[in-house]
Write a structure and sequence with these properties.
The protein has about 140 residues and is mostly helical. The protein has helices at about 5-25, 25-30, 35-45, 55-75, 85-105, 110-140. The protein is built from six helices and no strands.
């Protein structure tokens, strides 16, 4: 299926905005009290949190990294044609990241609901974004 250039650009813009906006929600956990993190951790069926500073450090710094990534994706969404090469990079990163997270979830081992809801959707979104990017790329090279 071939998309019209304006349709592909519109789809890429909105997919990037959805991705970036949802990832930016990671801003909030940066500021969660540790007691709230512990409650969420237990309710997810992950047991009690380790009482070591590294847990809190990793939880907060990972949320900050996700937030920063989300801001970059949102910035790219403001001008998909200008940042077209980065759209492909974001798609490729998501493909690889999804596979790495799936393998990590299986290795950890994380609960099955976590494994199913983390890596595979990221792979799917990365694949969609790459497909849309190729549609845009073909119209620019033609």
């Amino acid at each position: 299926m071939k998309l019209r250039p304006e349709t592909a650009t519109w789809l890429a813009t909105w997919l990037l905005r959805i991705i970036g906006g949802s990832i930016c929600l990671a801003l909030f956990p940066i500021f969660f009290p540790l007691s709230l993190m512990a409650t969420i951790h237990e309710r997810l069926g992950l047991g009690t949190i380790p009482e070591q500073p590294i847990f809190e450090y990793l939880a907060r710094s990972l949320s900050a990294m996700y937030f920063a990534h989300g801001l970059i994706v949102l910035a790219i969404s403001t001008d998909v044609r200008r940042y077209q090469p980065l759209v492909g990079v974001i798609g490729g990163i998501n493909l690889v990241l999804g596979v790495v997270l799936l393998m990590t979830d299986l290795w950890a081992p994380m609960p099955s609901y976590w494994t199913i809801l983390e890596g595979p959707p990221i792979v799917a979104v990365g694949g969609c974004l790459l497909w849309i990017w190729r549609q845009i790329e073909q119209t620019h090279s033609a």
